[in-house]
Specification:
mainly alpha, Arc Repressor Mutant, subunit A, 2 domains, two-stranded antiparallel sheet, 8 helices, 9% strand
Length: 206
């Protein structure tokens, strides 16, 4: 067996779907969208799914079950999860659920560099983000309404529930920052920030 793979949401999703039944890549992609996993797993590019399958295959976490041949479709390889894949999938799942991980999303990184903008510019971009997050919250509410209408078990909706809570918290925070910027309670200027640009991170002694 090659060097063990590091866990990733996409790898875990593929293993999880194959846990239920053997599938070809198109079937995996279809189920990811059908089950709403594309809201929490980045599969915007089909190539990333095929790379994930290749790496799981090389690590012997999945295996080729058969090759389907149909006149209407190109030849399709059907994959199944191996015993090792089932074990690793459970280990990854438990670890992801139990252990908070230091992640590096774009938004906090951009916030740390906000000083490059002046307060008026910051107000404009925060207003834009606020509207987009508000729209995202409405979309999550619509998804949850559909899920509730179908009387799905709560365990199948936990990721949407969590996303909604986080999105709502972000919206409330953005609204407070926008309000502070509009009122002038949050403001800065290059002149007052320049002393903090010293290498040691503190103003020079005068």
């Amino acid at each position: 067996m090659s060097t063990p793979l590091r866990s990733s949401p996409l790898y875990l999703t593929v293993l999880s779907l194959l846990h239920y039944q053997p599938l070809h890549p198109y079937g995996i992609q279809r189920l990811i969208k059908q089950w709403g996993k594309d809201q929490v797993v980045n599969v915007s590019q089909r190539a990333s799914l095929y790379r994930a399958i290749d790496r799981l295959l090389a690590a012997e976490l999945i295996a080729v079950r058969e090759t389907e041949r149909d006149q209407q479709y190109p030849e399709r390889t059907v994959y199944e999860v191996t015993d090792a894949g089932r074990t690793v999938a459970r280990e990854w799942l438990v670890e992801m659920l139990a252990m908070p991980k230091q992640e590096f999303p774009e938004f906090p990184a951009a916030l740390s560099l906000l000083l490059m903008l002046d307060p008026d510019e910051a107000l404009g971009v925060f207003e834009q983000r606020t509207e987009r997050v508000r729209t995202a919250l409405r979309e999550l509410d619509a998804i949850m309404a559909v899920e509730a209408e179908h009387r799905l078990p709560r365990v199948t909706m936990l990721e949407t529930e969590y996303q909604r809570m986080v999105t709502e918290a972000q919206l409330r925070w953005l609204e407070s920052v926008v309000a502070d910027l509009r009122a002038g309670r949050l403001s800065w200027s290059p002149e007052e920030l320049l002393p903090f640009a010293e290498p040691d991170g503190t103003p020079e002694d005068t």
